[in-house]
Known about the structure:
- By secondary structure, the protein is an alpha/beta fold.
- The protein has 2 domains: 14-230, TIM Barrel, CATH 3.20.20; 247-382, Lyase, Ornithine Decarboxylase, Chain A, domain 1 (Beta Barrel), CATH 2.40.37.10.
- The chain has helices spanning 14-27, 37-41, 45-54, 65-73, 91-96, 106-115, 141-150, 174-197, 209-213, 346-352, 357-362, and strands spanning 8-13, 32-35, 59-62, 80-82, 99-103, 120-127, 135-136, 157-163, 203-207, 222-225, 247-259, 264-265, 271-272, 277-282, 300-303, 306-311, 319-322, 334-338, 370-374, 377-382.
- β3, α4 (65-73) and β4 (80-82) form a beta-alpha-beta unit.
- The longest helix has 24 residues, at 174-197.
Amino acid sequence: xxxxxxxxxxxxxxxxxxxxxxxxxxxxxxxxxxxxxxxxxxxxxxxxxxxxxxxxxxxxxxxxxxxxxxxxxxxxxxxxxxxxxxxxxxxxxxxxxxxxxxxxxxxxxxxxxxxxxxxxxxxxxxxxxxxxxxxxxxxxxxxxxxxxxxxxxxxxxxxxxxxxxxxxxxxxxxxxxxxxxxxxxxxxxxxxxxxxxxxxxxxxxxxxxxxxxxxxxxxxxxxxxxxxxxxxxxxxxxxxxxxxxxxxxxxxxxxxxxxxxxxxxxxxxxxxxxxxxxxxxxxxxxxxxxxxxxxxxxxxxxxxxxxxxxxxxxxxxxxxxxxxxxxxxxxxxxxxxxxxxxxxxxxxxxxxxxxxxxxxxxxxxxxxxxxxxxxxxxxxxxxxx
Length: 385
């Protein structure tokens, strides 16, 4: 099995994915959701969901209805929790496809309940300090408790779970540690009250990747594993040192030439040669998910085991690399643009472009084919276009 053509592709190590999955499973003796939103953080949700499914994952978390349906249409029958907003007019489709919808406010619960012809499975989102979605325990606990208790009157909504989200569990500063503990305390108190009010909640989850890495415990019986499944750390401060990065972004050398002193390379003439310079053009650019800003950071790509700097501007589909000191580079040679580790890792790219590794992975374009490698062999290729 080979790529139809080599331009830019993502190479995904299934052995690393399985290793990370089992490592998470061993961290706590409890089931967990695999978070596969944003196309599994750029790793390809459809194929990886099948991998996790074969490993008997508890279920999947996605961000929106279309992501959930992509999994259902791919034959995934495990529980799927939609973490974000779904148009209440899709209530019947939620029911028909056995999808679990997050309920995060009285207004949303009312609209979803009024549109539901049959009971829709729901998880209740508690805002314990994230300030995003959820019944606002951090702002007005008494009002939030009243609104949550009132959910028992919504006959077309079947509440099967409750959850919250840590906002700074990936930080170990004193202020952040206190905030996370406050979140856990608010969640514990409310979950116990909900039990006394008559909620029959089977799934209680709060541990995200940072919470799992820090082994934060509480009243939870289920977890949500996201970035650590893919071998990337929640932050510089909170890590699981054993996890293995799963994705490399690769391309090929398509052209080699020597430019002379005073010649420029790329849009904006941002690189002008001070001496004769050997330049390789490679077949990837910002339309593939390479941050355009990288060209100004000294970022290097790897060719035949050595690192070479990007010069000029990152173009939409191509970019140029200074290979003056190279030996033996030829047209067609593979280039590792972003790696799981090393000088051109996702963490390094994130640091250079003032963001997080999550964003760099999620930015991998849908046009980039996903090549899944297991035991050294290509098992599957997923084409986005």
